User: Which sequence fits this backbone?
């Protein structure tokens, strides 16, 4: 077993019941989010294979990363008494729909989608890392590693979009995707995502 998987499987420090609940929700929402990302990239690859074949290798690499992330969060679940999200079907359906729609709208929209999702995810991972410090070192290490790869996805999308003017519809699409991702995260954490965002804002103030 890889070292990081072993860390993910170990029991966390002894957090308070309220913190333990938040930790459980963090693992659950991250697992669901990675699953949604797998569905997005899988759908985009299916369309891109026909329409934009040159994009397939980059999308495949991102898909592989998301599969790996999903497995790590799944491995972290039992020690934290966490289980897959009750709205997994929604994440799955939403991811597939988003992947198909964006890939059909054009290559630039694929990168707009990646940028919107990864930017939202990245912000939440920062909030989670702040919360987990001193509460669950194992999960903190797992998320810190994954955060680097999510950042690479975001940078890749931003580089692809760099200098290309966005049409109003594309800007609206980017905002809409970010909002939907936020809502799904909020629902999957029962609002704990707001609590963590507030804590990080206060710490930075
Ligand atoms: Fe991921
Ligand atoms: Fe990603």
Assistant:
């Amino acid at each position: 077993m890889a070292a990081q998987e072993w860390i993910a499987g170990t029991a966390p420090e002894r957090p308070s019941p309220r913190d333990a609940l938040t930790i459980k929700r963090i693992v659950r929402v991250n697992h669901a989010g990675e699953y949604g990302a797998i569905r997005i990239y899988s759908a985009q690859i299916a369309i891109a294979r026909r329409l934009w074949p040159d994009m397939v290798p980059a999308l495949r690499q991102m898909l592989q990363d998301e599969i790996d992330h999903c497995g790590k969060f799944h491995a972290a679940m039992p020690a934290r008494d966490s289980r897959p999200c009750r709205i997994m079907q929604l994440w799955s359906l939403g991811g597939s729909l988003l992947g198909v729609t964006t890939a059909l709208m054009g290559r630039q929209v694929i990168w707009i989608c990646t940028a919107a999702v990864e930017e939202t995810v990245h912000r939440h991972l920062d909030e989670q890392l702040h919360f987990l410090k001193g509460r669950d070192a194992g999960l903190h290490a797992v998320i810190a590693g994954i955060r680097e790869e999510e950042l690479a996805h975001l940078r890749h999308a931003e580089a692809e979009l760099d200098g290309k003017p966005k049409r109003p519809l594309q800007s609206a699409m980017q905002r809409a995707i970010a909002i939907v991702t936020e809502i799904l995260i909020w629902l999957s954490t029962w609002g704990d995502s707001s609590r963590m965002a507030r804590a990080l804002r206060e710490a930075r103030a």
Remarks:
- Residues 65 and 149 are 7 Å apart (CA to CA).
